[in-house]
Structures are given as C-alpha cells and as structure tokens.
Amino acid sequence: MDELRTKYIEAIAAAADEATLEELRVQAVGKKGEVSLKMRELGKMTPEERQVAGPALNALKNEINSALAAKKVALSDAALDARLATEWLDVTLPSRNHRVGTIHPISQVTEEVTAIFADMGFAVAEGPQIETDWYNFDALNIPGHHPARAEMDTFYTHRAEGDERRPHVLRTHTSPVQIRTMEKDGAPIRIICPGRVYRADYDQTHTPMFHQVEGLALGKDISMANLKWVLEEFFSAFFGTDVKTRFRASHFPFTEPSAEVDIQCSWEGGTVKVGEGDDWLEVLGSGMVHPNVLKAGGIDPDEYQGFAFGMGIDRLAMLKYGIPDLRAFFDSDLRWLRHYGFASLDQPTLHSGLNR
Ligand code: PHE
C-alpha cells in the first residue's frame, strides 16, 4: 500500500495536464484500477486482517481522490495565471479615433423627397436598373423608330453572337417603373420611384449615371390641377420657402398633354436662389399619362387617368445645398464627402424640419 501511495501521489504531483490526471485516476481508482482491485481482495481476508486493511485502503482511495482534485484546480489556476501574464489590457488608454462616415447628399435628398411625398400619400416603388427595351421604351409609347430612343443616348447590354433577342438596356429614366407598378398593383396608384438611371453623356452638368424620382398618380378624376398643387407643395416643403412654378407646354411620348416645369429663382453673383426673383429654372418633365401607356400597363384609359412626372435628384441636391459640379457627386473624394455629407443621425423628418 505504501508503494501504491508513493507511486500515485508522485505521479499526480508530476502530471502536466488534465488528460494525464484522468489516466492516473482510471489506473488507480477506476473500476479496474489498482486500488479498486485491492479492495476486492478484502473478501478473501480473515476478519482481523480485513479490520486493518479495509480502513487503510479507504484512506488511500480518499487520499488519491483529493490529490487528483487538488492537482486539477492547481492546473487550471496555472493556466489562468499563464493567460493573465500574456494577455493584458490597459483600460486607461484613450480610445482610438474612428472617423465617422457621412450621408451622401444624394441619399439625404432622396430621403427628404420621400418624406415629403409620403406625407402626401405617395408610396415608394422600385424597378430594376437593367431593363428590357419594352419597359424602357415600347410600353411608354416610344416605338422602335421613335427619335426619343436615339436622343436618350442609351447604354445597351451585349448579346452573344447569334442570339437574336433584343438587348436589355440600362434604364434611361425611372418611367419604366410606372408600367411595372400598373401591372403589379392596378389603379388607383400613388407612387414615387427614386433611383439610378443611365445615359451616355459626360460634362459639368451630365454624368453617365444619375438619379431621378418618378411620380405617378392614377385615379378616376386626377387632373393637371392636382399635378400643379402636388409639385408646388413639394417644392415649397423641399426648399423651405414658397416656390412658384411655371408650366411650359412640351412633348413626351408617354404623356399628353405634357409640360416642362420651371421653379422660380434668382441669380445673384453667380449663385442661384430658389423661391425668389424673376428667373426660372427647369427642373422636371410631366404630364397626363398617355392612354397608350395606361393600356400597356393593363389599365383601362376610359376608367382611369392621372399624372406623371420625372425630375433629377442630383439637380435638386445641387440647388438646395449649393453644390456647383455634378461630377463631384461621384468622385468619392473624401474631403468632398466630409464637406457636403450629412451627419448620420440627422435624418430628415417633417416634424424635425427638412432644412439645416
Ligand atoms: N422620363 C422623362 C425624362 O427622363 C421625364 C418624365 C417623366 C416626363 C414622367 C413626363 C412624365 O426626361
């Protein structure tokens, strides 16, 4: 028994990890362990022998078990000490300086436009930026030979050689969403559709990708008068001052009659101010939705009518926030973004005020 004690107590003391400890436990006091086997031999002893050997074996078993438990605690303490010695954290250090990003003026203005139209009961609709030429042109009453197709400077996608299907286009305006919404929801309709559009054009006032917001309102008796009210209401809320509009007769294949809309402004020292003065600035195209367009969207033109408009979001942002060059919007110049960007928690709502 003394041999057993020495053997196991020393081995336990020398064990370097928990796996070794477990092996020792099985060898000594497991079901077939050396101490357990010795205990089985008690039955063969005389009662006198057993009286001495029984308690001694029990004591040995307990001693080994406590040695195992103590060593287990010691091992995990040592592991923790080792971690604490290598991993440490100075909580008194000042935090690192994280640059906070800003909201891009286009996102900001899109949110503002959405908030104002939402207040007038317009929902937001969306459509794909890669369109079929049917949604982008034909359904909008622009047939294949129509000059508007050429005028739009359309980007066409590529078809594999021998593939006779007509190529898709990058949508040149947000108007295809009119058709998609008519097909999906039927009349009545009151939606706006903000989004990206594409035309092959590049100078100080044109970029190949820009943003429009479409508007569409269909009902039994929606008229041009409603269009004028909605737009004046919109511009006044957006610019934070009463803004007069001027409607000029125009032509779009998808509206009849059609009007281009100007807003009142002044030019002083090369800067434009909206809502004052005697000058006019063209900001959108609009009109009463053409019966052919309603038909293409599956709506009966004898039952429903309404207005549509489309305007440039980038243009609105330039006007409201005094941003001179359109191209800078998409240069991703950090200094520009920090200067013209908006704080992320400063999102527009009608009650907090849309103007900073
Ligand atoms: N889709 C026209 C454009 O991009 C704008 C427009 C929309 C005009 C709706 C009338 C009605 O120029």
Brief summary of the model shown:
This protein is α+β, with helices and mostly antiparallel strands. Helix content is 40%, strand content 20%.
Structure write-up:
β6 and β7 form a beta hairpin. The protein has 356 residues and is α+β, with helices and mostly antiparallel strands. The model has no long low-confidence stretch (mean pLDDT 91). α1 runs parallel beside α4 (47-86) and α3 (34-40) packs antiparallel against α4. The radius of gyration is 40 Å and the shape is elongated. The strands form two sheets. Strands 1, 4, 5, 6, 7, 8, 9 and 10 form an eight-stranded mixed beta sheet that branches. Strands 2-3 form a two-stranded antiparallel sheet. It is built from twelve helices and ten strands. 40% of the residues lie in helices and 20% in strands. The structure holds phenylalanine.
Q: State mean pLDDT (0 to 100 scale).
A: 91
Tell me how many strands there are: 10
The first-level CATH class name of the largest domain = Alpha Beta
Poorly predicted regions:
none
The number of distinct structural domains comes to 2
Shape: elongated
- CATH architectural arrangement of the largest domain: 2-Layer Sandwich
Q: Radius of gyration from the CA trace?
A: 40 Å
Number of alpha- plus pi-helical segments: 12
How far from one another are the termini?
89 Å
